[in-house]
Amino acid sequence: MTLEELPKIEIYEEGSQIRRSSKSVVANFVEAYGMKRYPGDVVRFLTYSPASCDETKSHLEVLHETGSLTPERFEYFYNQYRRLGAMLYNYRQAVIQGRV
Q1: Are 14 and 59 spatial neighbours (Cβ–Cβ below 8 Å)?
Q2: Residue ranges of domains in the chain
Q3: pTM listed for this prediction
Q4: 94/100 Cα distance (integer angstroms)
Q5: Superfamily of domain 8-96
Q6: Is the separation of the CB atoms in 62 and 23 below 8 Å?
């Protein structure tokens, strides 16, 4: 989406930010798994992951507000990241409470 649907001016600005923050969601989650021997680090990386998800939503909002992203595409991506953020938050809470 960031390379094909955005206006040229946004491909390297907000598009680049979205690519980095969305990759960070996954990278932090994977890093948390890699730190499973260190509970404090697991929680720390599980905190970063939803924060990166929130950052991605923020960049999507900017694109929507500037008219660079159609309302339909904004709703689709924003809702997907909203759901993902809720799942990440709930998983983090389960880890903190020792349910996972």
Answers
A1: yes
A2: 8-96
A3: 0.91
A4: 6
A5: 23S rRNA-intervening sequence (1.20.1440.60)
A6: no
Any residues with CB less than 8 A from the CB of 55 and at least 6 apart, and which?
A: 17, 21, 24
Q: What is the pLDDT of residues 28-37, one digit of tens each?
A: 999 999 999 9
**Contact yes or no for 96/43 (Cβ under 8 A):** yes
The 3-class SS string of the chain reads: CCCCCCCHHHHCCHHHHHHHHHHHHHHHHHHHHHCCCCHHHHHHHHHHHHHHHHHHHHHHHHHHHCCCCCHHHHHHHHHHHHHHHHHHHHHHHHHHCCCC
Q: How far apart are CA 98 and CA 16, in angstroms?
A: 37
